[in-house]
Design goal:
alpha/beta; 4-stranded mixed sheet; Purple Acid Phosphatase, chain A, domain 2
Amino acid sequence: MYWFTGDEHYGHANIIEFCNRPFRDVHHMNKELILRHNEVVAHNDVVVHAGDFTLHGSARKAQEFIERLNGKHVFVRGSHDKWMDRSYHERWEKTIENQKVVVDHYAGRVWPKSHFNSWQLYGHSHGGLPPEGKQWDVGVDNNNFYPVSFEQIVQIMESCPDNLNYIKKGDRRR
């Protein structure tokens, strides 16, 4: 099973005030995010993180959080992910159940295969940027501090309009 999340900001005390998160302090936030993550994600599930996993610059400190989380993790580099080296993704793309899914830290107006109604999952905006077409902010602030399953994304996308640049079948531009 695939899960998507982002903008956890583990260890970032100021994010609580910046985003009006309902936590007493950074330790409470870290504990609650880990608890909610592990409540839904199984050990063999794949979790794609859409950036800003932790503000800590140390890969060792990031690994301490990763080891407490269920799942096999894929990371897309965010604006605060100083702990990542160049081996991490700038963008993650996969076809899941015949659906092209693109995960970026930043929302875009267009993305790979958006003209074919591919889906873009993004972070960075902390629930403050409405989606355009087949997009969804998978950041924790937009999803009650839980990861979002692929099945949930399918349901969300069913109610979303087509992408702005979608080329319908039979359109001469195709």
